Amino acid sequence: MSQDFHATLTGIFPRSEELVEATRGLDRGRVTPAHCEAVRVEDTRKVIDLQRAAGFAFHTDGQLGWQDLFRPLVDRTRGLEAGALTRWFDNNTFYRRPVVRGDLVLKGGLGPGAFRTRLDESARWKVVLPGPYTFARAAEGQGEAGLRAGRVEAFGDLLRGAARWCAERGARRFQFSEPWLVYGQPSRADLAAAEAAYETITKGLRAETLVFPYFGDLKRVFPAILDFPVDAVGVDLTATDLDALEEHAFDKGLVLGAVDGRNSLVETPQDIVSHAREALDRLDPDWVAVAPSCEMELLPRPVAEAKVRALGAAVALGRDTL
Amino acid sequence: MTGHLFPTQEIGSLMKPAWLVKGLRGQPVPAKDRADLRAWAGRLKFTREAERVEALLDRPPGGKRDVALRNLGSVHQIRYLEAAGLDTVFDGEVHRAEMYEHPIRHSKGFTFHGHVRSFDNKYYLKASATGPARFRDAYHLDEYKFIAKHAKRPVKVPVTGPYTLADWSFTEHYLNKRAGSGRSLRARTAEARRELTLDIAAKILRPNIKALLDAGAPAVQIDEPAATTKPGEVELFVEAFNEATKGLPGKFPCHICFSDYTLLFPHVLEMKKCSEWQWELANKAASGDGYRYLDLLREYGDSRQVGLGVVDIHVDDVEAPEVVRDRILRASEVLEDPRRVLVNPDCGLRTRSPKVAFEKLQNMVAGARMAREALA
C-alpha cells in the first residue's frame, strides 16, 4: 500500500459539554464572545490531542466553530446567504440552506477560526469541505433543478479557491463530503458535472484529495466515481455492502466508514480491522483507511471520543495483522 | 365530544408563562411578569389561583412549592384554551420537559450520553437504547388525571409515537446483539432500528396508552413528527403505529407535522386504528397551495377525518376568521363531507407569545363558527 493503514476523521466533531454551555450562554447573553472563543480554542486543542493520542496520521481541528458544513463558506462568499433551516438528510439535525444571490466570489479566504492550523504547527492537517455537487444541491430551491449543472460548476470554482486558501495554511489532505451523490440516484449529467467540478478543484492542488459520499449506497455512483480525479473514495458501510462493489478494480485509496457515526455503540478494534480486511480482500484498493461513516457531530461527545480511541486501537492492531 | 360541525382542538404544547418558567427555575419574577399574570387572570377567571401563584412565588423554590406552582400553571393553561373557545383542550404540556426526553426518562433501557446539536448553537439530549426498551411507569397518567379533574371541556392527551421515539434514539443494544451475526453492517443497522421501534411500540407505548384509556381518557393523540424522515421506513412507522394500538379499544388520531405527506401513501392505508390525520397545512399554504395535500386522501380512498391545520405556528401574523372559514369550507368540499373536518393549529403554539397564540386560537374558533353558519 502506498499509504500505511491509518485512521481519519470525516467531518465536524461534536462539541464538549463545556462548549455546548458556552455557545448556549453566548446566544442568551450570559457569556462574552471572548469567553466562548477561549472555550472553543481549548476544546479544539482537546480534539487535536485526542487524534494524536490515537495515532492518527492526519489531524482535523474538529471544525468546532462551523455551524454546519456550508456556513463558513457561505458567510465568506459574496453571492451566498444562509437561508431557512433545512433537515440534514434523514437526521434530526438541521443546516441553513445556502441561498444563491449572485456570482459566487470568496472574500479573501475562509476567515479566522475556520481552520486552526496554528494550534499545532507539527500536525499533518486534513480539511473537510463540502463537495461541489452536495453544495449545489443544498443550495437548490424549488424549481431550480434546471440550474444544477451551472451551479455545480460555480461551486467547483468557489471550492477551488477555498482549497487553495487552506493548502497555503498547511492542509495536506482534503475531504470533499458528498452525501447528495448517494442519497438518491444522480443522473449521468449530474455525475458528469460533478466530475468536471473536481477537475477544477484538484488541478494543481498540492494535497491528497478524497471524495466521501455517505448516508447512502456507494453502488449508486459506482464505478463512475472511480473516474473522478481524486486520490481516494470514501464509503459509508452502514449503507453499502462491499460485495456489490467488487466487480471493478478499485484503483484508488479507500476510506472505509466502518465506525457508525450515527450509533452510540462503540465498535471494537477487531470489528474495525475485520471490515478493513474484507475491503482489502474484496476490492484490493491502493490503500485503506478506517473512519467514521459520516461526520461525528451526530453523536454525543463522549461516544465520539470513545470511537476515536477505537479507531486508533484498530490501526495499531491492523498494522500488525493486515 | 361536541355535537356541532368543525369542532376545534389544540394539538400540542404552548409557551409556558414567564412567571412559571422563572418560578420553577428559582429565579426572581419581576413586576412585569407578575403584572402579566394578573392581567391574564382576569381574562381567564383565574384570579383566586393567581393570588396563590403570587404567594408561592414569594416562597423559596423546591419540593411541594414547585409541585403546587406547576399544577397552577397547568390550570392556567387549561383556562387559557377554554377561554379561547376550544371544544377539546389539554394544558399545553406544562408537566412535560419536552416530547422526547420525558417519555424516555420514564422508560427502562435508555441512557443519556450527552448533547447532540440540532442546529447552530441549539442542542438536545439524545438517548441510547442500552438495554431492551421497556415500560417503567405510565408517564402521562398523573398528568391526565390532574387535567381531567380541572378541565371543563373534553380532554385529548398527546403522546409521542413509537417511530419518533425510536428515530430520535440510538439503537446501541439492538445493534450490539447482532455483532458476529455475519450479516453486513447495513443489514444489522436496519434490523436494529426495526426491533427497537417495535419494542417501543409494544412494550412502552401500548401500556402507556392503555393506562390512559383505563383511566377514562376520551382521546389519545399519537404524535409522529419523524414519520417521513426516512422515506424508506414509512412502512415501519405504520407497523409501529399498529403495534402500539393493537388490542386497544377505539381509534386514535395521528399528528404528523412538517413532513412530506406524499410519502405516507399508500402505506398508511394499513393503519386501521387511525381515526384522524392532523396535518400542518397552513404553513405549507404560505409557500404554495398547502391544502392540495387533502387531494391525497381522495386519490387513495382514505376516508378518515382530518384535523385541519388552519393556523401557522411559525408567524405572528394572525389569520383572519374569514381565512380560517375558507380553509375549512375547502376541506369540506374536497373531503365531500363536512363531518370529516376538525379544526386545529398546525402544531403546538409554543413558539408564539401567549398574546399572539391566544388571538390565533380565538380567530380559529371564530372561523369554525363562520364555516358552520355558511353551511347552515
List keywords for this structure.
heterodimer, A: 322 residues, TIM Barrel, seven-stranded parallel β-sheet, 9 helices, 9 strands, B: alpha/beta, six-stranded parallel β-sheet, two-stranded antiparallel ribbon, globular
Q: How does this model look, in words?
A:
The complex is a heterodimer of chains A (322) and B (376). By secondary structure, chain A is an alpha/beta fold. Chain A has a single domain, classed as TIM Barrel, CATH 3.20.20.210. Helices cover 37% and strands 19% of the residues of chain A. In chain A, the strands form two sheets. In chain A, strands 1-9-8-7-6-5-4 form a seven-stranded parallel beta sheet. In chain A, α8 packs across α9. With 376 residues, chain B is α/β, with parallel strands linked by helices. Chain B has a single domain (90-375), classed as TIM Barrel (Alpha-Beta Barrel). Helix content of chain B is 45%, strand content 15%. Chain B contains 14 helices and eight strands. In chain B, β4 (220-223), α10 and β5 form a beta-alpha-beta unit. Chain B is globular, with a radius of gyration of 21 Å. At the A-B interface, α1, β3 and α9 of A face β1, β2, α8 and α9 of B.
What's this entry about, in short?
By secondary structure, chain A is α/β, with parallel strands linked by helices. Helix content of chain A is 37%, strand content 19%.
Question: Can you lay out the helices and strands and say which pair or pack?
Answer:
The complex is a heterodimer of chains A (322) and B (376).
Chain A: E1 6-7, H1 17-27, H2 33-53, H3 71-75, E2 77-87, E3 94-106, E4 125-130, H4 132-138, H5 148-168, E5 171-177, H6 180-183, H7 188-202, E6 208-212, E7 232-236, E8 253-259, H8 269-283, E9 287-292, H9 301-321
Parallel strand pairs in A: 1-9, 4-5, 5-6, 6-7, 7-8, 8-9
Antiparallel strand pairs in A: 2-3
Helix pairs in contact in A: 1-2, 4-5, 5-7, 8-9
Chain B: H1 18-25, H2 31-44, H3 47-57, H4 63-84, H5 101-105, E1 107-119, E2 122-135, H6 141-150, E3 157-160, H7 162-167, H8 172-176, H9 185-214, E4 220-223, H10 234-245, E5 252-256, E6 274-279, H11 282-286, H12 295-299, E7 305-311, H13 321-335, E8 341-345, H14 354-375
Parallel strand pairs in B: 3-4, 4-5, 5-6, 6-7, 7-8
Antiparallel strand pairs in B: 1-2
Helix pairs in contact in B: 2-3, 2-4, 3-4, 9-10, 13-14
